[in-house]
Queue: 3 jobs
Job 1
Amino acid sequence: MAPPAIVPDANRRERFRDNNGNIISDIWKTSEYRVNKNAWTRALRVKPAREPYRGRRLRQLTQAMNSGGPTDGDTVNSVLSWETEKDQCWVCKRQLNDDPNSCGQRCYDWWRNLGPQDRLENDCEIRPLPWNSGFEGHGVYLKNWTPGGAKMPSITRNDMVGEYVGELVPWDREGHDEYEGEAEGRYIFEGPNKRWLIDAGKWGNTSRFINHNCRPNLIAVPMVVGGRRLITFRALKAIKAGDELTIHYGESYFNRYNEKCRCNAKGRPVAHDPEPAP
Ligand SMILES: C[S@@+](CC[C@H](N)C(=O)[O-])C[C@H]1O[C@@H](n2cnc3c(N)ncnc32)[C@H](O)[C@@H]1O
């Protein structure tokens, strides 16, 4: 049985800002997923008879697509709860079909209230990369300043740090190639079950700015919470105030985009030395 619909707050639109308060252009900050309706409609139209769009799922998806827009809560749920019935919920430790009342919105709210989202949004900030990082852009840093001298944030090993949020697009090799996404797909996180991709090229949360490091301090962990299959981040080691948060993008990432990993250009990670925050 499907968990109750989780309806996103579609009106909460905010721009990303770096630690100087400057708007980072053209990207919207959101704490909720969105469905890229065009990509799903195209995938359903182009390959109706092929995996992964078949049978009951195809009917459910078509129905979902017909019944709502890209910010429809049911549609987001129908994608994220795809084949999660047999998985254990991380919060209540039950299978969804054990006890339908135990899961869904309640467990998902619980997960969000545990603060993983807040860790990224409140304890971290997006900073322009320092000149010696070897590449341009922004990165995510654990704040090393606090208002009014409050306690500095820190992250301990195994802490949950957040969740990768963005637009949900169908996973399909051909559809994926066809679907370039924003920024040529550089912000796409491949979904944990080869059913969908999360593209944070246009919409996303702070985790879209997490850079690659060959010796990362975070790891992406797929998890089911409240019937939703999520990509979450967990700390591999203790992270101090002022440190950059990094993950390993996987072996093929830099080849795919014809880029070069700069973090260990000299055989060791370059010290990411952020400018002192104001
Ligand atoms: C998901 S984005 C990370 C955020 C990005 N720095 C920004 O400012 O938007 C991924 C892109 O960041 C850059 N990048 C991240 N880690 C890198 C690394 N270790 N070496 C070189 N480029 C990196 C690459 O251009 C890559 O395609």
Job 2
Amino acid sequence: MRHASASNETMESSSLTMTDLFKICTQCERLSKKDVGVRIPRPVGNGPSRFIPEKEILQVSKLDERIQSIFEDAFAVLGRLDNISLVMGFHPQYLESFLKTQHYLLQMDGPLSLHCRHYIGIMAAARHQCTYLVNLHVNDFLQVGGDPKWLNGLEEAPQKLQALGELNKILAHRPWLLTKEHIERLLKAEEHSWSLAELIHVVVLLTLYHSLASFTFGCGINPDIHTDGGHTFRPPSLSGYCVCDIANGNGETKGNVSELSGEVEVLMEKMKQLQECHDEEEASQEEMATRFEREKTESMLVVTSEDEECIPSRDVSRHFEDPSYGYKDFYRRGEHVPTLRVQDYSWEDHGFSLVNRLYPDFGQLLDEKFQIAYNLTYNTMATHQGVDTSMLRRAIWNYIHCMFGIRYDDYDYGEINQLLDRSFKVYIKTMVRTPEKITKRMYDSFWRQFQHSEKVHVNLLLMEAHMQAELLYALRAITRYMT
Ligand SMILES: CC(C)C[C@H](N)C(=O)O
């Protein structure tokens, strides 16, 4: 992997204003005409996402003043406006909360030093081979005075950070295996020990960046203009076209519409039917438990084909140990995942207060972010208005938790099978387990009649449910250690 560093290129690109960034296409033209005496980078040209036409994303920021001001704040606070934020701009209420949390976690007073926070972010993102996030935080790490030597690999970082390798690995791939012994080893390592408050900060960072890596792949986020691979100094070579349009499929029409029609209506009809039979029949406790187990077992079955199995490249893998972990055939054989019942350990009743106690106010912020994601709705389904979508959104959230073995006793897991079809499940499973394998084809083939903003909405649900699930296991292990 080539890291973008605080090089001249970066300095030059930071002279671009935010308005320039919003008008990337017109910018190609403008910048080539403008003679300002310095070499000005041109975006490689495919917009913030490989999956979503650039003009749809830019449209949002042009029309909405609230978005403009959130973007301005983000730019002022972080000194950049990354492609993740631009794509999240479809959902301003969520974006606001997301940025607040990021700011608190990375920049405000807290148990960990600034460069350690970014280094942990790099470790977490590298676990899922997310070069995009690794590059972003390598830049930040260097900017806050991090030692460049650490970037050669985890073995060159202090022993205290190296000790997080195991936690990073288990949390990312099989968080249910985390025990209080893992926690104890980190807290009782003599001069290399972590404090409890530091450890909370660590697990929040790790879980955030694992799930954000999924979001990044799930939305096909492109490299930022100021990072490596995100810009070029060469003039556009395809005369008459903007390269953006070619690279991200702008102007491409959606598949065969008549073939798709009815997909949304069928789903809405199912929701209505489920609502009706809810009021009628109640399944027995055993039956409810069986439905959960069935769904959990199904969710463990792997979706990708043999030949896609790969070991991450050396470049990213140097930031974590044992790169083959998580890529062996655990899932192929349908690994047994134990069940965690929410009544025994939940975010609301247990995790939240533990975080708030050790990292004041942060629990609150995190809780707000979970709630916004969970409750977000515009009451739409593709072109239909005024629809209650709570049943569908809950099925998505609970399916992710089910993949992590987390069970809500009062939820009927039969609903998931009715509402989430095969291609949607393929997308979800890939995004959560092996996000680096998400392809444009997978993104395109689920929910084909829905808007891009709705697919981003789905990604937000997946990301937050994923983060909460991982966090729950980490916090449970910490609670067990403490009691
Ligand atoms: C994810 C989508 C089904 C969300 C839907 N458009 C809503 O506003 O609730």
Job 3
Amino acid sequence: VNIGSLTSALPVIPYRKLTDLHYISKGGFGTVFRAQHSDWRTTVAIKCLKLDSPVGERERNCLLKEAEVLHKARFNHIIQIFGVCNEPEFFCIVTEYMTNGSLDELLHEKSMYPVVAWPLRLRVLYEIALGVNFLHNMSPPLLHHDLKTQNILLDGEYHVKIADFGLSKWRQLSISKGSGSKPAEMGGTVIYMPPEEYEPNRTRRADVKQDMYSYAIIMWEVLSRRIPFEDATNPMQIMFSVLRGTRPDTGLDSLPADIPSRETLINIMTCGWTANPDERPSFLNCLKELEPMLRRFDEIDILEAVLEVKRSKFKRP
Ligand SMILES: CNC(=O)c1cc(Oc2ccc(NC(=O)Nc3ccc(SCC(=O)O)c(F)c3)c(F)c2)ccn1
């Protein structure tokens, strides 16, 4: 066997094998469904081009590129692709189905999750960093560019997988055509967007440090269970105050004193969201600071935290 031939091809899944489709969400020009694979006896998620709009060559290529990116970026904290369904009237990416939905739900559905214990919250932060760090370690480095709690998915044991629902173009450092990002007014949220992206000037290349800004905001959201900049009435207000240096409050009423390693976590957060991208840590630095924190918890602490959220989720009023 020569090593070159080991790059496995992606399975092609016949549409007739995908049954029990249930609508999940609509993206840019794509739609996501839950489905059953009739031979594999497992639940999958399928991201398809809009069935109504004529499937243009450009959209088809965009989804093919996404499949290629996901296939190359296989890692235990990146959503797993199972294959593609490539038929004239139906074209979709088939991925694993993440039974516990998004981090956004875990943090803000307080009736479903009254308590999310610290060991699980810290494992979530650690696993997000592992996933993004892997993307940044690819060659060429792959930027996520749209990190937000809606794109962080949770599997049956509340392990994190990085996803990207958006059907935006994605950037690789080498081929980034300018730093044009999804414009905020296009329904994308600005709260995770670094200030240098507000005014995408052609000179600044897309940079891995943009993901670190988003990650720092997500850290604050995980530790506070609050919506960042929740008092702002419109995106422009957020952008202006962020440009003036405003950041989420790191005081005791947002970040309670009983957070384990509170000071270190606040340090990572404040370094991560500094205005100057060069001052932000890399995900590698961040992981080296998070590793000892996770080691302080034993397996049982984390499993008890997972059990607690599972119990509360299924004991619905
Ligand atoms: C309750 N459970 C659910 O509702 C559910 C829905 C679900 O639907 C999908 C969500 C996302 C995708 N696609 C995707 O994640 N692609 C992608 C592309 C690039 C990068 S990395 C560089 C970059 O970000 O550009 C990346 F990390 C990810 C998909 F195919 C299906 C999957 C699982 N569970």
